[in-house]
Amino acid sequence: MPSTPVDFLKVSENVSNIRHLIQSAGGDKVQLIAVTKGFGVDAIAAATLAKCDGIGENYAQEIMQKYAKDGTFLGEKWQRLPVHFVGKLQSNKIGGLLGVVDCWQTIDRLSVIKELSKSGQVQQVFVQVNSTGEPSKGGCAPHGVEKLCTMATEAGLVVVGLMTMGPTNGSIQVCETAFKGVRTLADSLGLIHCSMGMSDDFECAVGCGSTMVRVGSGIFGARPTLGSTVEIT
Q: Is 226 inside any structural domain?
């Protein structure tokens, strides 16, 4: 993975600051998922030492480079935090990620549900909602969420909550409308968790009822653009 070193002390400081901001926004039990997209295994180690609640990954290829095929991370040297898949999910990539991904946050169509159900294992999932109507964002439309949750449950998946991305550009009011809408939808379906909020809008999301935030640059800084790739086997 990219060779740009991660400052472990800075990561710890950033995580502490984010925890404080989450608490100030009213989130007592909000989970912090450290998104390591574009960073190497040292970022995972830093997030682990900083006591994040999980690791977020966007790309299947990166996961396969960072984790052994049996799902371990650097052997038994480090405690393995739960891995959340938070990127666009392709059905043909799922098989290679089984045993590594602990929670699938971007379930947005029936083909993905069918592929996950073939594993024969209990799979925890979030149904992704396109709460802003932006074509560039993944997720199903709000009116289709209940049906997709039902199909996922009937297929044997465990739906633990809803996931969404805030608007690319917009005022605090636009963010609140999107996040509150998803929180209301989750409540109507009897779902506890809402994965809402990233580096630029997690405080707003927490104030609207998020129980899980996904933060990358806010923890690790700007992502490296170039670097070598090292496979862990």
A: no
Query: How far apart, in whole angstroms, are the C-alpha atoms of residue 61 and residue 190?
Result: 34
Domain total in the chain: 1
Asked whether residue 1 is domain-assigned, the answer is: no
**Tens digit of each residue's pLDDT (9 = 90 or more) over 2-15:** 456 899 999 999 99
Q: Is 232 helix (H, G, I), strand (E, B) or coil?
A: coil
Name the one residue in this structure whose structure tokens are 């209990």: 122
Q: Please tell me the distance from the alpha carbon of residue 174 to that of residue 207, in angstroms, as a whole number.
A: 14
- CATH number assigned to the domain comprising residue 88: 3.20.20.10
**What range does the domain containing 77 cover?**
8-220
DSSP-based three-state secondary structure for 160: strand
**Token duo for residue 194:** 């809402």
Of all residues in the chain, the percent with pLDDT exceeding 70 is 90
Give the residue among 91, 75, 14 at the shortest CA–CA distance from 41.
75
Please tell me the pTM assigned to this model: 0.91
